[in-house]
Amino acid sequence: KMKLIDLCFKGTTSRVGGINLEDLAIETASMRPEVADAKMKLINYGYYKPVPKLGEYHANSSDLAKLLHNAIGLDKGAVGEKANPKNAANYEIFKKSLEEAPLANIRDLLDFDSDRRPIDISEVESVENIMKRFCTGAMSLGALSREAHEVLAIAVNRVGGKSNSGEGGEDTIRSKTITDVDENGKSPSFPHLHGLKNGDSANSYIHQVASGRFGVTPEFLVTAKQLEIKIAQGAKPGEGGQLPGQKVSKYIAGLRASKEGVTLISPPPHHDIYSIEDLAQLIHDLHAINEQAGVSVKLVSSIGIGTVACGVAKASADVIQISGGDGGTGASPLSSIKHAGGPWELGLTEAHSALLSNGLRDRVTLRVDGGIRTGRDIVMAALMGGEEFGFGTIAMIAEGCVMARVCHLNTCPVGVTSQKEELRKKFPGTPEHVVNFFHFVAEEVRQLMAHLGYSKFEDLIGRADLLSESKSQKKRVAKTKGMDLNPFFSGVPDATEDRSFLRTADGKMKDEIVHVSGFSSDLDREVVKTPEIVKVISDNEGSASVKFNIKNTDRSVCAMLSGDVARAHGNKGFKGKLNVEFNGSAGQSFGAFLLPGMNIKLVGEGNDYVGKGMHGGQLTVVPTEDAGFVASESSIIGNACLYGATGGDFHANGRAGERFAVRNSGAYAVTEGTGDHCCEYMTGGVVVSLGSVGRNVGAGMTGGIGYFYDDNGGFPERVNNEIVKMQRLSTAEGEAQLKTMIERHYETTGSVKAKTILDNWADESGKFWQIYPPAEAESPVVKEVDGVDEFRISAEAPDGAVCFLPVGGVLTPEQVARCAD
User: Fold this and answer.
1) Radius of gyration from C-alpha coordinates of the chain
2) Phi and psi torsions of 17, nearest 5°
3) Cross-strand bridge partners of residue 614
4) Strands 543-550 and 226-230
5) Are 638 and 629 in contact (CB under 8 A)?
6) What tens digit of pLDDT does each residue of 340-376 get?
């Protein structure tokens, strides 16, 4: 059973055996007659798109879509009309088509082997309770159209489940309950949707934080009921999310703080996660800004996932999601999604077993997704340890997808995955269609529970002993004869008697408990309870100025303060002014998620991730007056500072570590030198470095501007020229933008290096390089453009006069005072 793996893939782990060399030879020889008939030309066996009769079987197909549409009452030609009645008989046909289909998954080789007699279905848990365990997959707004994304969220909210935003952010209007629906199911707030009801909510229960941090703002974080860290994708582990440029419309670009028409690719890793400790810090950040929301971590089904899952549980995650290799919304290139990922059956059983064996299972809820379509899949997953279950592609089909497989081309004929206005108007789905599908699946689960003799769903969780190998299924295909599923179950601990893992250590329901940060958030709690600060936030006017001492065990300081402001006033509504100064050595993620109106100053030094997710306001880091070092030659902040920043002004009187301003999409920052990978994956904002930088500057940069002081001629060789171009200062606007930012830096920090440059501007300005991506080539700071009245110099207050300077103008004394304040 393992001969082929040992010979050709030595060191690869297999828990289920597989084919041998003889099987491989037989399969290859079987193709010979077809090739001969085709005169030795390569035959398309439908590995990418289904080919009738001859081609490889695809579980999701246009035929399957038609069967499901008939069951749930969806007519793709009846846009805007009320859903037809659902039809249970047609759902049985849909279910039968999957049961009789070619073998495609490990679970297809399994059967149920209950230890109880069947019971009457009236004794079984209700459909409503079962549907609360349903989730949608993390499909982003951008990969999906606005209509498709919002309909899924509304439908899952109706049944009490958990919808997932994916990694593209969400429109802030979705956080508000819909209350303006007329008798025709139409809402002025959501005019593009049909079949709405008063009381509906389009706000996704789960808001995702991915490596690209697209759409991650303070308001996005505080309006979530759960926050998900996407470590990787099941369909293409090792790669970040991808969105083709033709799908980045003006609306999508606005949500993601990027450039219209420019392809978006998330970094393969999170640049603030290189270890379990780093992951624990990001979990800490998210728990800090939104203490009411649990944090889930999305992992890929693979060998060794059990060890990772144990680390994630110890890092204070509330939910672990196991994502299988099937699925994906089709926004990615074919080269990324073929021969990648593994079955969720393997990852789920390994994670459940490892957590249970190490006494950690009661700390987390296990969620699973990846090709789940029916009630049978749900029950199988539950027996392997799953507690919640995600629907991806099949949920898209339930709202109208016809499996045209052109998602990546932006030409979806029914507007499910297109951003084109004319195609989106053809979107046929309503929340009721998706609810109908969930009802059918939940009812199928109840029927299986009755057959197995179990009335409560939770009694099935982790009961792998109720599964057995199906001999009849194994005989259907020669390829499966060499598979041995016994090792698949042998490692799963017996959970027949001890069911304590279904509750927390103190006996509470897991979804009622959210991990709370300990002493590392004590300073943050002290800040938010300060009476002066509480009053300014409550009144939304006035100002408060306070000072605190800080030490390096105080982590994510100001994240809770940002959360309080965002909950009360959103991203842009705060009218007050909070001036908070800290003295000492700050722990990780100092100044995370700041908002306009927050002026935060650190006198001392920062650690990694200073200004993470900053959205507005001003963040300043300066050394103490008695510091015994030259500020411009010494590091004052750590790595990955301003990661995912979407706005605000940042000034550091000292050097920054590696990956400064990685994925910055709006912050205006000045520092006195950086390590490697400065401006990596940047999509907006401006970065100024007054000192030397490391290698790989501007890698993956698709937006924004960088200015780099080069007094020794070594800068050009440090630039990654794959995307960005470089030039000396070539426009009056560019020179004025740079000079004004340096002036603000001097006024704010007292930087000696900034003063030296300004005092000798005529000579020193010629030592600066400007880097820019193609999307900025027509910007007035890059190229001479007629008719320019003003240009941006700041992101501190997005609507404030200080942000823009008239061409040829200088800062007024009042503006200088504001900047220095």
Assistant:
1) 28
2) 70, -150
3) none
4) unpaired
5) no
6) 788 999 999 999 999 999 999 999 999 999 999 999 9
Q: Are 323 and 301 in contact (CB under 8 A)?
A: yes
What is the token pair recorded at 40?
């030795």
Residue 568's CB is within 10 A of a number of other CB atoms, namely 13
Task: Name the β-bridge partners of 164.
Answer: 206
Pinpoint the alpha helices (H) of 290-430.
305-314, 334-337, 344-357, 375-383, 393-398, 421-424
| 218 closest CA partner among 621, 569, 526, 531 | 569
| Crossing angle (nearest 10°) for helices 305-314 and 344-357 | 50
In single-letter form, the type of residue at position 677 comes to H
Give how far the C-alpha of residue 649 lies from the chain's centroid of Cα atoms, to the nearest Å.
25
Average pLDDT over residues 100-105: 91
Cα–Cα distance, 691 to 712 (Å, whole number): 10
Q: What is the mean pLDDT of the chain?
A: 91
Residue pLDDT, tens place only, 668-706: 999 999 999 999 999 999 999 999 999 999 999 999 999
Maximum Cα interatomic distance, the chain, rounded to a whole number of Å: 90
In single-letter form, the type of residue at position 811 comes to L
CA dihedral 758, 761, 766, 767 (to 10 degrees): -30
Looking from the CA of 771 toward its CB, the CA atoms found within 13 Å total: 31
Query: Would you call 219 helix, strand, or coil by DSSP?
Result: helix
List, for residues 138-183, the tens digit of each pLDDT value.
999 999 999 999 999 999 999 999 999 999 899 999 999 999 999 9
| Conformational region of residue 783, where left means phi above 0, alpha means psi within -120 to 50, and beta covers everything else | beta
Tokens of 279: 């992951």
